């Protein structure tokens, strides 16, 4: 397993991370433990969850599965999404950040969060207020590093300048949707993050499993899969455009004795600005395949060939 520092920080994470949004939503406590334990055995050290995942059960199940091994890993979680009724139970205000962190620490069964991420921009709260609260949490030892998610490029720049001028800890990571079917962040967010030294943590790296190749054109999604469970939302992913790209990526993969899953994860891992690929999993075998896929580094020629396949249809 390769380990890379997140952005400009000294925080090393495994290039194959684990997304934890299935925990408490698609899989129960026991199945979560099986997935997490396999990941630990394979050298995965980055676990990405959020207070809202699985109706707050993801953090609980993750904490329980990690147990004593928590000290050997990097736990990343998030706040902002609604965790209860009313305006005080959501957002990025100082009031909610201080509540949210205590609740996440309790659910995770830990004394500290390694990477605490602003899940979504909260346009009703000044970024200075949120960053000051997060800086206080770092000083209190409850949080080690901070990051953002779903930020536009200008919001990253605004946050980093606020941190710089106010002497707050800076953001070290930006989480955003990024995969071979959706490369929109390459226009603005990626250059901004490179300039301001944030690592990019791509979410939906497999387009919710579509890029594993297990969905076939003209066929119903296999039972028990995420896109079957998602109904109409899943059907949006199963579009003609996406199957056309998938077909071309499969040819690219086959020519190299690889799978399309290897391409999806290996391509992301081949970008130096991506410290970790946090694919989600519902079974230990998926973790094994995803960790293996994260070993592949594409050559610059292969990356250009991929550009021809994916940008063409963007
Ligand atoms: P993803 O990684 O694109 O897809 C994960 C799903 O694909 C799995 O749940 C599994 O679904 C299927 N899969 C995974 N490995 C597979 C394999 N080897 N073979 C076949 N199928 C496989 O999507 P994601 O988990 O939603 O995204 C990754 C992480 O990003 C999340 O877990 C979460 O931590 C984070 N995230 C963040 C945000 C945000 O707003 N910041 C939003 C979304 C996600 P099935 O087995 O059910 O088919």
Give structural notes:
This protein is an alpha/beta fold. It has a single domain (3-208, 260-297), classed as TIM Barrel. The chain has 12 helices and 9 strands. A 7-stranded parallel sheet has the order 3-4-5-6-7-8-9, covered by helices on one side. The protein is globular, with a radius of gyration of 19 Å. The mean pLDDT is 96. Bound molecules: NADP nicotinamide-adenine-dinucleotide phosphate (NAP). The site of NADP nicotinamide-adenine-dinucleotide phosphate has 30 residues, from helix 11.
| CATH architecture annotation name | Alpha-Beta Barrel
CATH fold field value? TIM Barrel
> What is the typical, i.e. mean, pLDDT?
96
How much β-strand is present in the residues? Answer: 5-15%
Q: What is the CATH homologous superfamily assignment?
A: NADP-dependent oxidoreductase domain
- What does the largest sheet look like? 7 strands, parallel
Written as H for each helix and E for each strand, in order along the chain, the element string is EEEHEHEHEHEHEHEHHHHHH
Radius of gyration: 19 Å
In DSSP terms (H or I, runs of 4 or more residues), the helix count works out at: 12
Poorly predicted segments: none
As laid out across the biggest beta sheet, the strand order is: 3-4-5-6-7-8-9
Oligomeric state, counting identical vs distinct chains: single chain
Give the CATH class.
Answer: Alpha Beta
State the separation between the terminal residues, measured CA to CA.
32 Å
Number of domains: 1
What proportion of the residues is helical, as a percent range?
40-55%
Shape: globular
């Amino acid at each position: 397993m390769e380990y890379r520092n997140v952005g400009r920080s000294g925080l090393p994470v495994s290039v194959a991370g684990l997304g934890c949004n299935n925990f408490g939503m698609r899989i129960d406590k026991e199945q979560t433990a099986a997935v997490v334990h396999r990941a630990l055995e394979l050298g995965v050290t980055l676990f990405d969850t959020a207070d809202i995942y699985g109706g707050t059960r993801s953090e609980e199940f993750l904490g329980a599965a990690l147990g004593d091994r928590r000290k050997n890993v990097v736990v990343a979680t998030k706040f902002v999404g609604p965790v209860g009724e009313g305006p005080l139970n959501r957002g990025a205000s100082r009031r909610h950040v201080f509540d949210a962190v205590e609740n996440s620490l309790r659910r995770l069964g830990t004394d500290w969060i390694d990477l605490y991420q602003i899940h979504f921009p909260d346009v009703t709260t000044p970024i200075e207020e949120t960053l000051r609260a997060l800086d206080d949490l770092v000083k209190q030892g409850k949080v080690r590093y901070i990051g953002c998610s779903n930020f536009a490029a200008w919001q990253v720049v605004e946050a980093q300048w606020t941190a710089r001028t106010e002497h707050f800890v800076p953001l070290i990571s930006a989480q955003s949707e990024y995969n071979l079917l959706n490369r929109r962040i390459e226009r603005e967010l990626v250059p901004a993050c490179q300039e301001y030294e944030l690592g990019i943590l791509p979410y939906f790296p497999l387009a919710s499993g579509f890029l594993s190749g297990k969905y076939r054109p003209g066929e119903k999604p296999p039972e028990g899969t995420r896109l079957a469970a998602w109904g109409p939302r899943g059907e949006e992913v199963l579009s003609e455009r996406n199957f056309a790209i998938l077909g071309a990526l499969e040819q690219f993969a086959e020519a190299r004795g690889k799978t399309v899953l290897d391409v999806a994860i290996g391509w992301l891992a081949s970008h130096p600005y991506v410290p970790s690929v946090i694919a989600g999993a519902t079974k230990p075998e998926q973790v094994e395949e995803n960790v293996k896929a994260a070993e592949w580094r594409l050559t610059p020629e292969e990356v250009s060939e991929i550009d021809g396949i994916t940008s063409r249809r963007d």
